[in-house]
Specification:
8 helices; 6PGL; Rossmann fold; hydrolase; three-stranded antiparallel beta sheet; Glc/Gal-6P_isomerase; EC 3.1.1.31; 19% strand; binds 6-phosphogluconic acid; globular; 6-phosphogluconolactonase activity; alpha/beta
Length: 237
């Protein structure tokens, strides 16, 4: 018998509508955090899928000066590199109204993510968690954040009771060494979103939820089957 699934899917017929809907939802979450706590914290993914969402969110009217924005994972490159998620977030999200937000990086300038782990972890420890919202993406290989199949710290990163805030990650499919928030860190959030596009990813998600075939081994399954935080999937073709 499968565990009860904690996942709601919002499907859109066009991707601009998806980006707009998620931006409005996340902005509401940030406003609630600001109203209740006087500050708000957001963690976002890199990759290509969230670009329109970032553009749309950057125009939302809220007190961005009291919002901290960090990443769910980072490629271990400086923000001058085109592969940098910090570069993406700075150029697409921290613009317009959102230019006033404070960015909290995971990349530290150390030579390796192993060397930078302590400092990156301290950056996350200094945030007033829980996150108000965490926005994940997913790769065609079933990775989310930098939970890559075959990753050298994958089991530790997915341990729901692990203590590490962040972990380095090296994997054949990762391109470059990475650093990632761990699963328990990501789940310390008031709201969890998974932003995906394309039929291939829709089918992959369905298989991963049910644990079918290859997909039973996909790291994203750990997010879909946990019972700590409901997951809202935002999908467009
Ligand atoms: O830095 C990263 O690579 C990510 O944070 C990663 O987890 C991403 O969300 C997926 O790889 C999906 O990427 P796409 O949106 O480019 O398909």
């Amino acid at each position: 018998m499968h565990p009860p699934l904690n996942v709601t899917t919002h499907s859109f017929t066009d991707c601009r509508a998806q980006a707009t809907a998620l931006a409005e939802r996340v902005a509401e979450r940030l406003r609630s955090g600001l109203a209740e706590r006087g500050h708000a914290v957001l963690a976002v993914s890199g990759g290509s899928t969230p670009k329109d969402f970032f553009d749309r969110l950057s125009h939302e009217k809220l007190d961005w000066a009291r919002v901290q924005v960090t990443l769910v994972d980072e490629r271990w490159v400086p923000d001058t590199d085109e592969r940098s998620n910090a570069r993406l977030v700075k150029s697409r999200l921290l613009q317009q109204a959102a230019a006033a937000a404070q960015f909290v990086p995971l990349y530290t300038g150390d030579a390796t993510p192993e060397a930078g782990q302590g400092a990156a972890s301290a950056h996350i420890d200094a945030l007033p968690l829980p996150f108000d919202a965490v926005v994940l993406g997913m790769g065609d290989d079933g990775h989310t954040a930098s939970f890559f199949p075959g990753g050298d710290h994958l089991a530790e990163a997915l341990d729901p009771d692990g203590y590490a805030r962040v972990l380095p990650m090296r994997a054949p499919g990762a391109g470059e060494p990475r650093i990632t928030l761990t699963l328990p860190t990501l789940l310390e959030t008031r709201a969890l979103y998974l932003l995906v596009a394309g039929e291939k990813k829709r089918d992959l998600l369905a298989d991963a939820r049910l644990g079918l075939g290859e997909a039973q081994h996909y790291p994203v399954r750990a997010v879909l089957t946990q019972q700590r935080v409901p997951v809202s999937v935002y999908w467009c073709p």
